[in-house]
Structure to design on (342 residues):
């Protein structure tokens, strides 16, 4: 009985931790997901892994061994994007980014080229990446945001990087 | 007397902060300007990359990545000569030391460094490029080794970063 309660407490604290890291994304979702011209969907982790595994069945894909560990540790993927007359206020995007930083997300990279804007934020513990949030804005009207959940270790990324480096050096 | 000392100290530290912000201010004043392309790579990104073990990457380069605290790039193809002159005039020469100035095929390339209080460690490398076609400002912050940064130039594959190779040659 004691271990049952302990397990429940662990599960509860894990889910609370997970929710705490997504509070501002949830707020954004509540604000925008039902508006006209804003699309939002979440691909569950098992489906994302299944789709990835199907894609990797292709014998021609020599990179499948390198991608497998990343795919194996991938969780659900949430996507928001604008279409037709959909519009996300740039002040709300800026506020969301600020809120994410308050929730201990960190900026990885920011790139702006003309009116195209890309920003990647991450959250994790020690060297393990647990969340990756991508913001892509092509102009004032076009907006895409992707939230990838998972458990990505530097080792997994190393294997992938090694693979692509070896692949490009083979080409040379 | 105590108040006077506090006032003097505040004025002194205030002027130091103002100097230290010259490049940041210049960067910030154009960061949202559509004529410019900007790149910011955070310390977190460098920290992550340094932990990724890539077989062919040499240990020195990996160490350099670990020590970089951030990278800012600002570049434009609009009025490059004007922006180059503006950047040079706004940068405080007391704070930065000129490392090298190169004129290569109509392009002016200026390397400036900032050192720590002991003067032994380079804490910032600033590169300004101004030519007929392009203006670039690249700022590396961290515990820097110039030769290794010169080697990093090729890998960056960003407008203007090819000039970093000049550090290696010299």
């Amino acid at each position: 009985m004691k271990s049952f309660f302990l397990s429940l407490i662990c599960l509860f604290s894990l889910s609370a931790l997970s929710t705490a890291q997504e509070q501002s994304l949830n707020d954004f979702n509540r604000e925008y997901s039902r508006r006209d011209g804003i699309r939002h969907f979440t691909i569950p982790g098992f489906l994302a892994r299944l789709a990835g595994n199907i894609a990797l069945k292709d014998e021609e894909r020599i990179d499948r061994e390198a991608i497998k560990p990343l795919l194996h540790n991938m969780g659900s993927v949430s996507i928001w994007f604008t279409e037709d007359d959909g519009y996300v206020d740039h002040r709300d995007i800026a506020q969301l980014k600020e809120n994410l930083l308050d929730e201990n997300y960190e900026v990885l990279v920011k790139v702006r080229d003309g009116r195209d804007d890309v920003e990647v934020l991450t959250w994790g513990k020690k060297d393990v990446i647990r969340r990756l949030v991508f913001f892509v804005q092509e102009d004032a009207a076009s907006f895409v945001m992707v939230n990838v959940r998972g458990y990505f270790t530097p080792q997994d990324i190393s294997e992938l990087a090694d693979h692509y480096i070896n692949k490009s050096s083979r080409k040379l | 007397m105590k108040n006077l000392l506090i006032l003097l100290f505040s004025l002194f530290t205030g002027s130091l902060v103002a100097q230290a912000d010259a490049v940041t201010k210049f960067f910030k004043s154009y960061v949202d300007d559509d004529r410019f392309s900007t790149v910011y790579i955070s310390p977190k990104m460098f920290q992550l990359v340094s932990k990724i073990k890539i077989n062919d990457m040499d240990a020195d380069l990996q160490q350099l990545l670990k020590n970089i605290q951030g990278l800012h790039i600002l570049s434009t193809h609009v009025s490059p000569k004007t922006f180059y002159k503006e950047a040079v005039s706004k940068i405080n020469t007391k704070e930065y030391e000129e490392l090298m100035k190169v004129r290569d095929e109509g392009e002016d390339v200026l390397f400036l460094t900032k050192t720590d209080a002991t003067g032994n460690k380079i804490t910032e490398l600033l590169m300004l490029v101004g030519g007929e076609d392009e203006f670039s400002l690249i700022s590396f912050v961290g515990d820097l080794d110039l030769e290794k940064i010169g080697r990093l130039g090729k890998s960056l594959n960003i407008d203007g970063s090819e000039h970093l190779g000049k550090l290696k040659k010299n």
User: Anything to note?
Assistant: The interface with chain A takes residues 31, 34, 36-42, 44-45, 48, 51-56 of chain B (CB under 8 Å).
